[in-house]
């Protein structure tokens, strides 16, 4: 267990903390290089994939937290910009302090008092330096004006996965709305701060902050709201910052998972999973999850990759951006879905063109019925798709017909022996039955269990076997067999 260090910064009303650091080297912005720990939230189930990406792109080992959906890794601040280029992370923060086994006091009052005392004992200096550096690195995206309420609300399949017993609360505003509005006018937003960061000292402005407490575990005597309120009050007093829930410059994170406590400062204003999509649909998949699925099938140069149920095109678009030596075909039988995919591709290309980057993407879009694809037999290398779960999209009943039909058609177009499929579904029972009735055309290699909008789903990596399509009796009688099995309650053994 780590313990609070006595190197807390001097409080002050007009600074974010003194500019001390441990090294004489400088980073790209001329500041000293500091070593810190970065925390990242990632799609649950894909923690190892994220750790692999960190190793590959930043060259350091990441630690996977007990708290599923989080990884931690060390960096020096000259690598900070690379952290923002990671594709498998949703939100980033810099760790102020972490405790593996925090001994919470018995009573609520004692625990909250201790949390208040903690605020002034934490080693804030380096992390606040990183926050400042991060602010100058960030693209001018604009401040989160209007706060969370103004954000595009994704559908449930795309929304943040929160453990059933987890609570998430923000520090309630200390001052009245009228006072806050007055303060908003007198305090420049983050974008303005970025613009004048080279000019007059932006540190001279009053810093606005909020505390967000993410708590999971049932043995706590306090709520996350109480923890955020009391810890936040102490932070406010220590730094003389101003609390503001919506128009804040700094977001302090208090992550509590059973006995693990991590205090951090957020480095992202909004989850990086929204990066590609401008036209959302009812079941848009997070780009970070799409990236994890794509990595599972390891796209190779000149592979033909199909998403036959593309919805808004989140998977093939991520593929065309990140694994761009393959070619992607995105199809759907719904006109609105196809239009959204086209719009998302066009919007992304325009954004690129506006920045002067090459705008072409290796992707095409088509309206089709997956059960009868206009594609030659054995011509596709990888099929990667997010199937209707039968909750928001389609129905469980229809899946008993749809799954065998589409698995068979996918097996027809996919190359025997080398072809692969990565399929996401929450309708695990129907999926497993359908696979087992495919006459050996598909073999399950691996399953990653993920949380999609609070639903426990499987990402199945399948290999197309050498079996010749159309030669097994199961191919012929597949649909009938599946319909007959609907009443069968016995679950298949999952291979993972
Ligand atoms: C879960 S959604 C895919 C969401 C997508 N991954 C995204 O990020 O937006 C499933 C999609 O399958 C499509 N679909 C259902 N049956 C189909 C069929 N027979 N042929 C083609 N598409 C189909 C639906 O229209 C829907 O867009």
From TrEMBL:
Main location: cytoplasm
GO CC term (a single one): cytoplasm
InterPro entries named among the record's database cross-references: RlmKL-like_Mtase, RlmKL-like_Mtase_CS, SAM-dependent_MTases_sf, THUMP_dom
Domain of life of the organism encoding this protein: Eukaryota
Chain spans, region Disordered: 1-30, 139-199, 477-496
Cell compartments where the protein resides: Cytoplasm
Keywords of this entry: Cytoplasm, Methyltransferase, RNA-binding, Transferase, tRNA processing
Coiled-coil ranges from the UniProt annotation: none
Biased composition (Low complexity): 12-30, 156-165
SUPFAM superfamilies xrefs: S-adenosyl-L-methionine-dependent methyltransferases, THUMP domain-like
THUMP domain residues: 161-267
Polar residues: bias regions: 173-185
Pfam families: THUMP (PF02926), UPF0020 (PF01170)
Single GO BP term: tRNA methylation
MF terms in GO: RNA binding; tRNA (guanine) methyltransferase activity
Similarity section: Belongs to the methyltransferase superfamily.
Protein name: THUMP domain-containing protein
Name of the encoding gene: THUMPD3
């Amino acid at each position: 267990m780590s313990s609070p260090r006595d190197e807390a910064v001097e409080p002050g009303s007009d600074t974010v903390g003194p500019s001390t650091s441990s090294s004489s080297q400088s980073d790209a912005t001329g500041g000293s290089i500091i070593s810190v720990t970065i925390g990242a939230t990632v799609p649950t189930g894909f923690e190892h994939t994220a750790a692999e990406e960190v190793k590959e792109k930043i060259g350091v080992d990441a630690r996977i937290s007990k708290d599923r959906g989080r990884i931690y890794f060390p960096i020096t601040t000259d690598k900070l910009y690379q952290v923002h280029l990671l594709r498998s992370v949703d939100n980033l923060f810099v760790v102020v302090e972490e405790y593996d086994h925090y001994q919470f006091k018995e009573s609520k009052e004692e625990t909250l008092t201790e949390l208040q005392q903690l605020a002034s004992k934490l080693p804030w200096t380096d992390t606040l330096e990183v926050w400042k550096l991060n602010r100058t690195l960030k693209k001018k995206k604009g401040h989160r004006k209007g706060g969370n309420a103004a954000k595009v609300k994704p559908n449930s399949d795309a929304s943040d996965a929160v453990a059933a017993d987890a609570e998430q609360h923000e520090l309630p505003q200390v001052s009245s709305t009228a006072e806050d509005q007055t303060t908003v006018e007198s305090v420049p937003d983050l974008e303005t701060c970025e613009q004048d960061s080279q000019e007059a000292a932006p540190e001279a402005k009053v810093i606005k902050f909020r505390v967000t407490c993410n708590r999971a575990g049932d043995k706590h005597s306090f709520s996350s709201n109480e923890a955020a309120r009391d810890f936040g009050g102490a932070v406010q007093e220590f730094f003389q910052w101003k609390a503001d829930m919506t128009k804040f410059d700094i977001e302090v994170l208090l992550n509590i998972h059973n006995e693990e406590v991590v205090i951090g400062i957020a480095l992202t204003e909004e989850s990086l999973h929204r990066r590609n999509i401008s036209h959302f649909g009812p079941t848009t998949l997070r780009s970070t999850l799409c990236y994890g699925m794509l990595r599972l099938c390891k796209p190779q140069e000149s592979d033909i990759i199909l998403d036959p149920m593309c919805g808004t095109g989140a998977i093939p678009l991520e593929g065309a951006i990140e694994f761009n030596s393959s070619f992607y075909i995105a199809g759907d039988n719904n006109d609105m879905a196809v239009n959204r995919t086209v719009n998302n591709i066009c919007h992304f290309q325009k954004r690129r063109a506006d920045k002067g980057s090459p705008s072409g993407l290796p992707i095409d879009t088509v309206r089709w019925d997956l059960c009868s694809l206009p594609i030659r037999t054995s011509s596709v290398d990888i099929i990667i798709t997010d199937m209707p779960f039968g909750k928001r999209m389609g129905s469980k009943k229809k899946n008993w017909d749809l799954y065998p039909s589409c698995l068979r058609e996918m097996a027809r177009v996919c190359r025997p022996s080398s072809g692969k499929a990565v399929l996401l579904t929450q309708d695990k029972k129907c999926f497993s039955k359908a696979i087992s009735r495919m006459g050996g055309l598909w073999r399950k290699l691996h399953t990653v269990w993920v949380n999609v909008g609070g639903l426990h789903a499987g990402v199945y990596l399948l290999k197309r076997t050498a079996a010749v399509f159309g030669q097994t009796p199961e191919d012929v009688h597949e649909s009938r067999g599946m319909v007959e099995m609907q009443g069968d309650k016995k679950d298949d053994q999952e291979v993972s």
